[in-house]
Amino acid sequence: MTSTRTDQLLSVGAVAVPFVAAAALVPLRDEVANANVALILVVTVVAFASSGRRRAAGLAAVAAATGFNLFHTEPYLSLRISSRDDLETALLLLAVGLVVGEIALRGRRARALAVKERQDLQSLTGLGALVAEGEDPSYVMLATASELTHLLGLVDCRFDPAPASDPILPVVHRDGAVRWGPTPWDTARWGLPTEGASIPVWSHGRHRGRFVLLAPVALPISADQLARAVALVDQAGASLADGTKAA
Asked: Is the dihedral of CA 28, 31, 37, 43 positive or negative?
C-alpha cells in the first residue's frame, strides 16, 4: 500500500470514527457524564494522532469536537453550546488531538532520523573496511557510487576519472553546500541542478576524478546528506594510491 493511499485511508477514518463514536454514545447520554464521553472520544483521537500524521490528528480532533458538540451538548444537533463546561470540554478535545498529533509526528521523524543515521554509519564503516582491506580501487568506486545512490536517492551516479573532458558541473563542497563557481544552489528547496552535480575525488593531495550525481527533478536534499556523501567520497579517494587508476 502506498503512502498516499495510507494517508487517504487515515484521513477518512479520522473523520468517520470519532464522529460515529460520538453518535453511538447518544443512547447513553442520560447515563454517562459528558466528561466521560469526552474521555472516550479522546481515545479515538489519540489512536489517529499516534499515527504521526498531522492531517489525520487534526481531522480526528475536529471530528471528535464536532460530534461531541452536536450529540452531547445542549442544544442538541446544533453547533451552539450553552454550557461553559461543555464548551471547555469541546475545546480540550480539539487541543488534545492537535498536541498529541504533533508529539507523535516529531517522534516519528526522530525515529526515521535515527534509522537514517544508523544506515549512514553502516555505509561509512562498510566502505572504510573495503579501503582498509586493500580492495581493488575499481570495486571501491562502484561500491561508493552505489552508496551515494542510496544515500541521496539518485537516478544515476558514476565515477569519472577524467573530468577535464566532460561538462563543468556544480560542485558539492565538504559542508554540504552546492555551488557553481561563487553561486550557491538551494538543494533543500530545489534539489540538485537538472544537469547534475559533482563531488571531487582527492587522494594524497591530488585530484583524481569526480563522482557525477544525477537526482530526480526537484527532490529536496539536505546539506547534511550531501556532507555525508562527501565523507564517503573522501574515504573512497583513500583507496587510490599514487599511480593507481580506477576505471
From this structure: negative
User: What residue spans define the domains of the chain?
Assistant: 3-109, 134-237
pLDDT band at 178 (very low <50, low <70, confident <90, very high): very high
Is the separation of the CB atoms in 22 and 67 below 8 Å? yes
User: Are the C-beta atoms of residues 201 and 240 closer than 8 Å to each other?
Assistant: yes
164 has a pLDDT exceeding 70: no
More confident residue, 196 or 83: 196
Mean pLDDT across the chain: 84
DSSP class per residue in 44-108: HHHHHHTTT-HHHHHHHHHHHHHHHHHHHSSSTTSS----HHHHHHHHHHHHHHHHHHHHHHHHH
Grid coordinates given for 157 = 551516479
C-alpha cell at 77: 444537533
